[in-house]
Amino acid sequence: MQERNHQGEFLEFRFSRPVLGLGLKALIFWYFWIKPKVHEVLLKGSEDMEKLTADYWEDRYRGGYTGWDLGHASSAMRHIIDQLDDKNLKILIPGAGNGYEATYLNNRGFKNVFLLDWAAAPLEAFQKENPDFPKKQLLHQDFFLMSGSFDLILEQTFFCALNPVLRPDYVKKMSEILNKNGFIRGVLFRVPLYEDRPPFGGSAEEYRDLFEELFDILLLQDCIMSEPDRLGMEVEFSFQKRS
Ligand SMILES: C[S@@+](CC[C@H](N)C(=O)[O-])C[C@H]1O[C@@H](n2cnc3c(N)ncnc32)[C@H](O)[C@@H]1O
Fold first, then answer.
1. Which of 112, 125, 155, 227 suits a disulfide with 186, CB 3.0-4.6 Å?
2. What backbone phi and psi angles, to 5 degrees, belong to 160?
3. SS3 content of the chain, % helix, strand, coil (to 5)
């Protein structure tokens, strides 16, 4: 009996040692291999956000990875611009990229138009296409560090290119650089889109909440003038700086 006991304990010991060893190996495997990988995946989103630098955008232009670029002024923006009468308006297009809307404005006699982008490549391309456009109206800088005073700011695919944590700063900066009763007009995506890389989406309700403290919401509605591949995905808006 005693012997059987002895053997039993022995067998138990022999059985539990490999199990323990296996458990230990699994723990080491989890700690040094799986956990870092999981962490990496979880962090990927925020790392991608950190990559949204001027260099990131510059590389995209220089490499030709510009899926957002329509190659012409969008129908939605042309529709907005066509409603403008005052050719003396001082207009800013931030995150202008290749600036097709600026070309459109310029060709229609708006001469007080400024393009801003922190990537040099699209501004150079714009200058090449529009050799007579005043160089001093091409602002190669970070939007959040700019100063100035404008009557109208035109928004298209700049807001959605920014890390969403910057949205409150975007609203503040817009208010800061607009003249008294100045406007921001344009289009914004009204669908969620991506969470870890541009374009970042949103909803009309979200935008109302975000802007209404500093702006009067004059227009915020589904855009019917969108380009075919953006139809149903955009809202057209007109917000006036609250005095
Ligand atoms: C998606 S692209 C849109 C370009 C243009 N609006 C269009 O519709 O083709 C976003 C642009 O915003 C610019 N951008 C992003 N963050 C910026 C910042 N903080 N200051 C200035 N430009 C910025 C990028 O360089 C890029 O040209």
1. 155
2. -75, -10
3. 50, 20, 30
